[in-house]
């Protein structure tokens, strides 16, 4: 019964919460409309039949989030320094990274992480060979980049999503 | 004293953001290629959204936040459409 | 500027600092857009404005309105969530389009496709 009405409980709750934030109120009418929206949109998503996501190890996910926020701050400062004070010719280029991660949601999160961090951008992903291509603004040592992305981000994502 | 500081920093922030928008505009005009112009347009609307937030703080109206949200939505849709066009346009030629 | 006088001094200073930081990051991002040499370098620059630039300005806005109205106001968080989710998509599509166009023109500076598709 609950499966039928709430196929995606987390998503429905999130939608209702967004509706409440939008309206800046918790009056009965708003709450009711939020619940209806959550249920209806949750069932609509179910019609699209998305692949199931299985999340494990929430504490690790939280640690990864904190690490990503700190990395974003650090690389913001690094890119700002390059833009403002850089005198030497900048060596930037593409890096190909062989991945072990194949889960779609894990890859989506990885793409958000890599692109949100200034200085690296996700370019393309070859699902047959499982090779990821990224572009790095300040490419000093290529092996170091491959290693750090695999260690810092792919390892925890593998544990959470696969 | 602290309110003069706030007043000055709102003005300074707005001048910085206007300069940022001007830089994006220059890049958009100079190009040299279509993808450069689209990146510049993307940066332009993000800067405009941030500028709108400062105007909101200055005038004390929450409505500017909603306007910022709409700019973010429409800017996203337009950049996606333009990037798609950059690929498709070439395919058709 | 009557409504801003209602802010207590500590809040005024916090809002001022956050605003300046946000504007500074957005400014440096756009400066990078102007100064960096080629497209693949330039595409990195606006990320400054969409991450820390927007974050600081949203924090300033949340602080200002929450203190003014005397209750927590989180409308702005939605802009932040939305922007973090969409920026990767736009930049990824844009870089792929640029790569595709460069490959079409036979440029040798970009990596070649690993397979025919």
Write a structural description.
Chain B: It is found in: Cell membrane. Chain B: Belongs to the CPA3 antiporters (TC 2.A.63) subunit F family. Chain B: It comes from Rhodanobacter sp. FW102-FHT14D07. Chain B: InterPro entries: MrpF/PhaF-like (IPR007208). The complex is a heterotrimer of chains A (about 160), B (about 90) and C (about 120). With about 160 residues, chain A is mainly α. Helices cover about 60% and strands about 10% of the residues of chain A. Chain A has a three-stranded antiparallel beta sheet, with helices on one face. The model of chain A has no long low-confidence stretch (mean pLDDT about 80). Chain B has three helices and no strands. In chain B, helix 2 runs antiparallel to helix 3 (about 65-90). Chain C has one domain (about 1-105). Chain C has five helices and no strands. Chain C has helices at about 1-5, 10-35, 40, 45-70, 75-105.
Order of helices and strands of chain B: HHH
Name of the level-1 CATH class of chain B:
Mainly Alpha
Secondary structure: number of strands of chain B: 0
In sequence order, what are the helices and strands of chain A, one letter per element?
HHHHEHEEH
Any chance you could write out the topology, listing elements then pairs?
The complex is a heterotrimer of chains A (162), B (93) and C (117).
Chain A: H1 2-5, H2 9-23, H3 28-47, H4 58-85, E1 93-98, H5 104-116, E2 120-126, E3 131-136, H6 142-161
Antiparallel strand pairs in A: 1-3, 2-3
Helix pairs in contact in A: 2-3, 4-6, 5-6
Chain B: H1 2-30, H2 34-59, H3 63-92
Chain C: H1 2-5, H2 9-35, H3 39-42, H4 47-69, H5 75-104
Helix pairs in contact in C: 2-4, 4-5
Organism (chain B): Rhodanobacter sp. FW102-FHT14D07
Subcellular location (chain B): Cell membrane
Transmembrane segments (chain B): 6-26, 38-57, 63-87
């Amino acid at each position: 019964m609950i499966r039928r009405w709430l196929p995606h409980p987390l998503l429905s709750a999130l939608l209702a919460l967004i509706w409440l934030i939008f309206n800046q109120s918790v009056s009965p009418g708003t709450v009711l409309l939020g619940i209806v929206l959550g249920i209806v949109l949750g069932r609509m998503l179910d019609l699209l039949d998305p692949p199931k996501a299985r999340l494990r190890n929430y504490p690790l996910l939280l640690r990864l989030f904190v690490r990503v926020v700190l990395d974003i701050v650090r690389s913001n400062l690094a890119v700002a320094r390059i833009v403002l004070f850089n005198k030497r010719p900048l060596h930037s280029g593409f890096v190909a990274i062989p991945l072990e991660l194949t889960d779609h949601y894990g890859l989506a999160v990885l793409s958000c992480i890599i692109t949100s961090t200034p200085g690296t951008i996700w370019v393309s992903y070859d699902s047959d060979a499982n090779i990821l291509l990224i572009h790095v603004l300040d490419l000093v040592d290529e092996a170091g980049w491959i290693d750090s992305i695999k260690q810092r981000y792919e390892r925890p994502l593998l544990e959470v999503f696969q | 004293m602290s309110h003069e500081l706030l007043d000055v920093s709102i003005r300074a922030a707005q001048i910085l953001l206007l300069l940022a928008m001007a830089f994006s505009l220059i890049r958009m005009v100079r190009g040299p290629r279509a993808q450069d112009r689209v990146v510049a347009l993307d940066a332009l609307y993000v800067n405009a959204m941030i500028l709108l937030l400062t105007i909101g703080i200055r005038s004390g109206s929450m409505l500017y936040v909603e306007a910022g949200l709409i700019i973010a939505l429409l800017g996203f849709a337009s950049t996606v459409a333009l990037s798609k066009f950059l690929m498709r346009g070439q395919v058709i030629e | 500027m009557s409504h801003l006088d209602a802010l207590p001094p500590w809040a005024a200073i916090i809002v001022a600092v956050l605003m300046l930081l946000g504007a500074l990051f957005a400014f440096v991002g756009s400066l990078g857009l102007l100064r960096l040499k080629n497209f693949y370098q330039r595409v990195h620059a606006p990320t400054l404005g969409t991450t820390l630039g927007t974050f600081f300005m949203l924090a300033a806005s949340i602080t200002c309105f929450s203190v003014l109205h005397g209750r927590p106001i989180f409308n702005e968080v939605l802009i932040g969530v939305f922007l973090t989710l969409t920026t990767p998509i736009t930049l990824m599509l844009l870089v792929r389009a640029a790569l595709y166009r460069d490959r079409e023109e036979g440029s040798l500076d970009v990596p070649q496709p690993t397979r025919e598709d």
